[in-house]
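Structure (tokenized):
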């Protein structure tokens, strides 16, 4: 028995090496192993060459040769064969399929950025319009405004000459306006209250005017009821359709019916949203758009009223 074992050391060692190799491959195929761990544990491999015919002639002892393998070779030797051809860079780890670069989050961010860009463009366009209007006023007489004649709530005829010596804040609107007109008129009311509190001397010289662009429905009685909801300093004016159209044309105010019913009784009026500021001589001094806050309007009004031309 002893002679049979000693006489066949090569076959025993081959069986042992084969069983270890099979066990290693089974474990490696079932459990993903990090190449870093393989590099640490198998930095030095001892490889045994199979016994050749030349070694058997040297006393029957097996000839063993030790070879030191590099970490990269060790890692490559331990890679499972099942990962061949998969294109994975690190087969010892689990990988997930790459997701699409387009996601709901990126679409949401793109939408917000687009909306912000559109809003910025509109605000910037209005600011440039205001700047252009200021430059026109400062360098010459603008082709906006002119003589006009309307009727106040007492039935009296009122013209631009009725406010000579006063600075006026003129706004075009209509009594059935659902939101924009009340908002702009409230803004003018805050301007008047701020002037009264901080600049009382200037406040006494300013008169807010409201001109109806819907004379067919805005009668004197309708405007009287409408005026109860707004600043008491407001002067409400109306007139015939021809009178209103002529004045709107001189101020370049856009006026058009919208959402008109079949019988023509119910409709809205699209119109320009601008507050015209006139000096005490009746000349146009500045224009205030919807984007301006009440504090911005107050600043402009005070600046214009306190301006002293250089001799």
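Design, position by position:
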């Amino acid at each position: 028995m002893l002679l049979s074992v000693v006489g066949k050391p090569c076959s025993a060692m081959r069986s042992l090496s084969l069983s270890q190799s099979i066990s290693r491959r089974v474990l490696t195929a079932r459990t993903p192993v990090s190449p870093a761990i393989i590099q640490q544990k198998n930095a030095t491999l001892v490889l045994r060459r199979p016994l050749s015919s030349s070694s058997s002639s040297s006393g029957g002892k097996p000839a063993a040769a030790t070879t030191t393998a590099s970490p990269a070779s060790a890692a490559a030797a331990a890679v499972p064969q099942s990962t061949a051809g998969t294109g994975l860079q690190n087969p010892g780890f689990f990988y997930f399929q790459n997701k699409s670069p387009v996601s709901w989050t990126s679409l949401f961010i793109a939408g917000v950025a687009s909306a912000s860009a559109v809003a910025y463009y509109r605000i910037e366009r209005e600011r440039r319009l205001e700047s252009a209007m200021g430059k026109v006023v400062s360098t010459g007489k603008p082709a906006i405004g002119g003589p006009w004649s309307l009727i106040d709530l007492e039935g009296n005829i009122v013209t631009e000459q009725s406010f000579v010596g006063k600075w006026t804040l003129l706004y075009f609107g209509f009594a059935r306006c659902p939101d924009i007109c009340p908002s702009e008129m409230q803004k003018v009311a805050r301007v008047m209250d701020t002037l009264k509190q901080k600049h009382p001397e200037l406040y006494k010289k300013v008169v807010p005017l409201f001109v109806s662009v819907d004379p067919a429905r805005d009668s004197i009685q309708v405007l009287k009821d409408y005026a109860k909801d707004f600043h008491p300093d407001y002067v409400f004016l109306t007139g015939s359709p021809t009178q209103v159209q002529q004045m709107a044309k001189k101020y370049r105010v856009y006026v058009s019916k919208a959402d008109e019913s079949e019988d023509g009784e119910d409709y809205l009026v699209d119109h320009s949203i601008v507050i015209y500021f006139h000096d005490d001589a009746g000349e146009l001094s500045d224009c205030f758009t919807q984007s301006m806050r009440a504090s911005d309007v107050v600043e402009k009004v005070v600046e214009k009223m306190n301006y002293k031309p250089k001799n």
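Reviewer-requested clarification: The longest helix spans residues 104-139. The CA atoms of residues 225 and 300 lie 31 Å apart.
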